[in-house]
Amino acid sequence: MVITVADGAGIKCQAGEFSLLVDPPSQRKGNLILKTRTELPIDSFSSENIIWGSGEYEVSGVRVHGIALPSESTAKTVRSIYAIEFDGMRIAFLINVSSELSEDMIDGLGEVDILFFSADAKKIKPKQMVSLIKQIDPSIIIPAEDSAAKILMEEMGQRVKAEEKLTVKKGDLIKEDMANKLVWLTTK
């Protein structure tokens, strides 16, 4: 799987011909699109490959578990986090989280291999961010924003350089140096 930051915002995971986009900045085409923040009302003619809320889904063999963030949702906005099974790995997306997660939410994510993470630093302190990440205990942590990368590098004591992409296979995750490894991706 090849992971990049798409068009300056959003995330792209590509495995073979299948592309997964998370919060793309425009109506980019992908086999599967996840929205962590969706404005209401929802277009009833929205494509079946766009997932914007809680529930269990399967698109082209990719299983998705969406978890609602009721404390962050409003009458005009739905907020969600996701855990997916893709290319033999479990990937979780916690983007712009502004409150701590309940034990049920963390359990719903399952055993995470790769965690995409960013949080509202005005509402969640850096130490709380790291505590949440440690509860999830992923092999790889990818900050979804440059500001999150800088905070996490400082709090986790890891110095990493920004990369354009990450290429990873399930077998790579078993190596000892892959426990809570921070990977900083930036635009090309």
Going by CATH, the homologous superfamily would be: Ribonuclease Z/Hydroxyacylglutathione hydrolase-like
Measured as a percent range, the helix fraction is 10-25%
Which of globular, elongated, flat, extended, rod-shaped describes the shape? globular
- The helix count comes to 3
Instruction: Tell me the distance between the termini.
Output: 18 Å
Tell me which CATH architecture applies here.
Answer: 4-Layer Sandwich
Number-wise, the strands total 14
User: Which stretches are poorly predicted, pLDDT < 50 over at least 5 residues?
Assistant: none
**Secondary-structure element order, as H and E?**
EEEEEEEEEEHEHEHEE
Strand content: 35-45%
CATH topology title: Metallo-beta-lactamase, Chain A
Structural class per helix/strand content?
alpha/beta
Main sheet attributes: strand count, strand direction, barrel closure: 8 strands, mixed
Instruction: Give the averaged pLDDT, no decimals.
Output: 88
- C-alpha Rg, in Å? 15 Å
Count of domains: 1
- What is the class in the CATH system? Alpha Beta
InterPro entries: RibonucZ/Hydroxyglut_hydro (IPR036866)
Pfam families: Lactamase_B_3
Structure write-up:
15% of the residues lie in helices and 36% in strands. The chain has one domain: 4-Layer Sandwich (Metallo-beta-lactamase, Chain A). Helix 2 packs across helix 3. It is an alpha/beta fold and 188 residues long. The model has no long low-confidence stretch (mean pLDDT 88). The two termini are 18 Å apart. Strands 5, 7, 8, 9, 10, 11, 12 and 14 form an eight-stranded mixed sheet that branches. Strands 6-4-3-2-1-13 form a six-stranded mixed sheet, with no helix packed on it.
